[in-house]
Structure formats: structure tokens, C-alpha cells
Amino acid sequence: SKSREGFFGKVKGFFLGRSVIDDEMYEDLEEMLIQSDIGMDMTLKIVGALEKEVRSRGIKDPKEVYGVLKDVMENFLIEEENELKTEKPGLNVILVVGVNGVGKTTTIGKIASKLTKEGKKVIVGAGDTFRAAAIEQLEEWTIRAGAEIIKHQQGTDPGAVVFDTLKAAENRNADVAIIDTAGRLHNKNNLMKELEKINRIIEKHVGDSSYESILVIDGTTGQNGLNQAKVFNEVTKLTGFIVTKLDGTAKGGIVFAISEELKKPIKFIGVGEGIEDLRPFKPKEYIDAIFE
Amino acid sequence: MLDNLGTRFQEIFKKVKGHGKLSEDNIKSALKEVRLSLLEADVNYKVVKEFVNKIKEKAVGEEVITGINPGQQFVKIVNDELVELLGGTNARLTKSAKNPTVIMLAGLQGAGKTTFAAKLAKFLKKKGERPYLVGADVYRPAAMKQLQVLGEQIDVPVHIQEGSKDARGICSDGLNVAKENNATYVILDTAGRLHVDESLMEELKDIKKATRPQEILLVVDAMIGQDAVNLAESFNNSLNIDGVVLTKLDGDTRGGAALSIKAVVGKPIKFIGIGEKIDDIELFHPERLVSRILGMGDVVSLVEKA
Ligand SMILES: Nc1nc2c(ncn2[C@@H]2O[C@H](COP(=O)(O)OP(=O)(O)OP(=O)(O)O)[C@@H](O)[C@H]2O)c(=O)[nH]1
Ligand SMILES: Nc1nc2c(ncn2[C@@H]2O[C@H](COP(=O)(O)OP(=O)(O)OP(=O)(O)O)[C@@H](O)[C@H]2O)c(=O)[nH]1
Ligand SMILES: [Mg+2]
Ligand SMILES: [Mg+2]
């Protein structure tokens, strides 16, 4: 896609254009990683691990460093459980959370479409009762996706919507229920309390914690993404992430720090505003795409 | 999160006390701290590099003022330079001699344009102006409905054309309707778009040509990372923007993107968004954002008093 080539192409040329492995090379590499939002701490970790690996493998040629860097970076991403769980007999529930405007509602439309195409019956709950026309927006997406929607009026209690969605999904023998929530900044106590309540309703209904709790991260986000991930994880026990807007020039590098901190997988990436613009996240392919 | 930068400077400069002067040698680790702090705040890497060099030039050779420690003095130098970088240009909203003044909003997806359109309309209305909103997002599901609902909340008329795919047409029609209704301001809400999306960037140029806005404001999410410079440069190259709106500053992001954008395109930040509600709008104050970017607050006023 159009996004990755800039940075990732550069890295390859970066190594090929050198004759020795020296401090300058590592410093320049640091600079490139920081510019992709990987952050200072994570960059130092990656470069540190790389130096160690290069030394232990006895590598002298910068061209070979490039392959090692790929391995090292991949090691920081989580490979396990990077698929959305929707195959459980009975109802599978997916809760979608995140800060304002990251792409939650759009991503739900894309996931719903993917699932209905697989022949599943999908019900979506309009849990954003706050934002103007949030319900209408989600409704339009469910029409496109061939899914059903459960909605209340704007301004009502989102907990009640969630409850009704799960009930309806059960009654109608749906395979998957996806819950949209209002965007909220993780430092807003009252809004996080509200989310805690929503999470409790789901937990109670499902009977255990075997449901997906997905944080949507905007791929253009800088270092704040790590705070978002930490706090949302405390409140809704995340099972994974979806990174959106990777069709631009942003690199989404904050995912390395998030993966390192929370040890949770990225399940999908968003690469556009269309209903098909959702890709499974494959760490290997992602890193490959980084350097090709 | 970082410790208070001021405290760390004090630690660094403990040894400097009594030397009398800031030197390349004794500010080395302080500069490193500045660099780290700015990077943690998402200031663009290149902007940080230039800034740190500038600080070095300013600081080296300065005599330490008696009564305050060199750490505090260094903080002040950094602080003042940042304020100058962020402020400087006239940040007030234009008012054209002939009504209505046209304000066009543009930016990436989800930045907060539609919400800001309503906030600005209310802000202007409170000042006795007669704002008119125009909804030109023909792509996002329920985008026009969103603006319409917000307009009703603040009792400001909204021009939309449900079903139309002609953003430019909506804007010129909207402008005419607003004129007929004696509006003093027209605010154009456009669809979110990526700066690399050439056809959508063309659409903005078309809207600009058709409506000749006095103000083109780039709306930017304060949580944005290193990509802020690409974004700002591209939008500015296509549209020659007049200013920037920084949204979602009610979060805990440090907001360094503001610095990157100002350094790269030189256009002032005019407003900030500090919440989801329509009243959550403020004029931009560079000093406040600088304290936030540096992760400190009181040291500066302390030095000011000394
Ligand atoms: N380019 C691009 N745009 C996207 C992507 N995902 C979502 N968007 C756009 O981002 C904007 C915000 O998306 P929403 O789905 O409304 O985001 P949200 O998180 O539900 O927002 P709130 O409910 O207001 O918090 C819309 O204009 C979407 O079309 C993506 O992968 N790429
Ligand atoms: N916390 C907070 N949320 C904000 C602020 N400004 C906007 N938002 C929220 O951010 C999300 C996106 O806002 P919109 O106004 O829809 O953004 P937009 O730029 O019009 O989005 P598109 O039209 O899809 O490109 C919504 O959930 C808003 O409520 C702000 O200053 N603070
Ligand atoms: Mg939404
Ligand atoms: Mg909008």
C-alpha cells in the first residue's frame, strides 16, 4: 500500500549504502526509528537488542544487519492469538473501545461485513449514545454490512443498549455481537467508570471473560498511544488492538511500545475508509513490508 | 511520564553553581534532557535537532544571574525560546470588511473538524456575530446529520444537501444562502482526508477557489505523532493555510505536534479544543502549551519573580 514505502524503503537503502558497522550507523538508525513514532525508550531497546545480536552473530557487513533488525523488531511484537475469536459455539461478543475519532465505528462496519460474508449472523449495539449522529453513522454501516443493529435514543444510558444488544443477540441466535462505544479520553474518570460498567454487563452476560475487548488505536498517534493502551487495559482487560489509518504516511510505530508493555496482539489494521479496508495483522508480513 | 524537567535541570546544574557562566561543557547533559523531553512530547525529530542547536547558541556564554540557580535560568532560556517559536504571529481570527467572512476547515479523518465547526459557530454567536454552517462532507456516513444535530443544539442555521456528492457545489450554494440570510461568518466543514490523497486534496482546492475563504484552518488532533510535519506541509502546500486548531487537549498528551507544525509551516495556532462539548473551545496561549510540552509549570514564574 502507499503508506509504508517511504520509511521502509529508506531503511533498506540505509544499510546497503554503508561499508562499516559503527556508532554512526546505530545513531542514524535510532533517528529513523524515532521518526516512525517508535519512541525513545523503545528505540533504545530495539537498537540495544540489535547491537547485541550483531555482536553475537559476529556480523561485519552492514547489509546483513538489515536482516537481523527485522528479526529483532519482530520479536517485540506478539504473534499469538492475533485473530478475532468468533468461532465459539453460541454468542461471541466483541467490545470495541478507544479515544475519540480513532475509527471505532468504521472498523466495526468493516468487521461486521467480513463476518456476514463468512455467513455469520451479526448484531451490532449502538453503545455511543453521546456523539451527534453516532447512531445514524453506525446504522449506515450495518446496512452496508448486512448486519442488524440495536439502538436507543441519543443521550440514553449506554449500559442499557449493551444489555439489550446481548439479549437480542441471544434471542435471535446471532453468532456475533459487536458493541460500539463512545470515544473517550483515558484520563476522564467518569467516562472510564461508564466503560467499566459496560464491561461488567458483558462479563456478567457472557459468564466469563471469554470475549474480545479491542482497543482501536489511530495509526497517526504519537507517544500518547501507550498511555491509552495501559489505561483502557486496566478498565476493560483488552484482548488485542486494531491500528487504523495506516494508509497515510504515518508508521504506527507506537505499536512496538504497546506490544512490549501489554504483551497483547494486534488483530487487524485499517487501511482506508472503505468497507474492505481491513487487513489481518501478520507480524512477519508487517515487518517484511517495513523493509521491502 | 517524565519527571519535572526543572527539577532535573537543578540536579544537572548543581555542579555549575559558582562557575559563573553557562558553557558548552556544563550544558551538555541539560541539552540532552531537553532533546529527550521534546521527543517524548512528540515534537518532530528534525525540529528537535534544530531547536536544541538554537538553545545551545543562546545559552553558551550567558552569565548566571545571582539569586537563581543555573538550572532555573536554563529552564527559562528553553521556555522563552519555545514560547517565541509557538507564538509570534498574529493569532486572531480574521474579519473581512464585507460580510460574510468565510472560514474553511480541513484536516485528517477524525481530527475534530465537525465538532470544532459547531464550537466556533457558538463562539462567534456569543460575540454577536451571525454564523452559518455548511456541511460539505459527502463521504462519511451521517456526517451531514452530525453537523445538523450540532447546529440545532446551538441554534445556528446549517446548509446541507443530503445525497449530493458535490462538495464544492454545496459550499458555493451554502455561501449564497448564507449571504441571503445576512450571515457575518460562514464556516465550511469538509470531509476528513489524508494529505497523500490527491483527488481529495484537489476537492479542497476547488472549494477554496469557489468560496475564497478568508481563513483556512487546519484542524489537528493533539495526540498526533511524528507525522504532523508531513500533514501540515502537505495541507499548507495545497491550500496555503492561515492557522491551526489543536483538538483533544483535554487528554494527557503533551501536544508537541504543535511545535512541529509551527516550526515547519510557520502558521499560528489559533484555537484549542478541550473537550467534546460545544463550549470546550479556547483561544491559544503559547505559554501554557510550552509548560505542558516541557512537563513543568512553576519554575518559569519563579524565575520571572527573581
Ligand atoms: N484513512 C482512513 N480513515 C479511516 C480509517 N478508519 C476510520 N477512518 C476515518 O476516521 C474517521 C473517524 O472514524 P470513526 O469510525 O467515526 O471513529 P470513532 O472512533 O468511531 O469516532 P468517535 O465515535 O467519534 O470517537 C472517519 O472519517 C473514518 O472514515 C482508516 O483505516 N483509514
Ligand atoms: N475529548 C475531546 N474530543 C473531541 C474534541 N474535539 C472533537 N472531539 C471528538 O473527536 C471525535 C471526532 O470529532 P469530529 O468532529 O467528528 O471529527 P472530524 O474531523 O469531523 O471527523 P471526520 O469528519 O470523520 O474527518 C468525536 O468523538 C468528537 O466528540 C476535543 O477537543 N476533546
Ligand atoms: Mg464512533
Ligand atoms: Mg466531520
Provide structural commentary:
The complex is a heterodimer of chains A (about 290) and B (about 300). With about 290 residues, chain A is an alpha/beta fold. Chain A contains eleven helices and eight strands. Chain A has an eight-stranded mixed sheet with strand order 3-2-4-1-5-6-7-8, with helices on both faces. The longest helix of chain A is centred in the C-terminal third of the chain and has 18 residues. The termini of chain A are close together. The relative contact order of chain A is 0.17. With about 300 residues, chain B is of the alpha/beta class. Chain B is built from twelve helices and eight strands. In chain B, strand 7 and strand 8 form a beta hairpin. The longest helix of chain B is centred in the first third of the chain and has 17 residues. Chain B is elongated and about 70 Å long. Chains A and B meet through helix 6 and helix 9 of A and helix 2 and helix 6 of B. Bound molecules: guanosine-5'-triphosphate (GTP) (2 copies) and magnesium ion (2 copies).
